[in-house]
Write a structure and sequence with these properties.
Layout (H helix, E strand, L loop, with lengths): L4 H13 L6 H22 L25 H18 L5 H20 L17 H6 L1 H24 L5
Helix pairs in contact: 2-4, 2-6, 3-4, 3-6
Subcellular location: Secreted
Main location: secreted
Keywords: Disulfide bond, Secreted, Signal
Length: about 170
Amino acid sequence: MRCGPLCRFLWLWPYLSYIEAVPIRKVQDDTKTLIKTIVTRINDISHTAVSSKQRVAGLDFIPGLHPVLSLSRMDQTLAIYQQILTSLHSRNVVQISNDLENLRDLLHLLASSKSCPLPRARGLESFESLGGVLEASLYSTEVVALSRLQAALQDMLQRLDLSPGC
């Protein structure tokens, strides 16, 4: 007997019917846990803290805190930090950069559960022109970026409890 795609699908149907979607609460809990893990990694690096409101000449491209964080704004902010940390070529921030990629994926899952159109955010468009600033002050850039990232992540953690919009 010859079995086509329909027969194969019907044969797999009992297995497919037992697969359940990941509960959105689990995704939100995983997102919060990953944020806490990243904050802990930043604390372990133990650079001197810089206030998120403090201005450092030449490093204005590093985002500070935003008053209202939607899921798309969170993703955009994380994309910028990921781009900055990747360009630093520091052993200290490689894992944090990877964690930011995973966190962005979790934010996309949260957005899709709310039927939010969340396109993949890009980092800074004029980032190539900042190469000289980064090379001249790698340590300062790392300190400021990690300090502001930590403040942004703690704010995101609080916002996730309030169920942010698209």
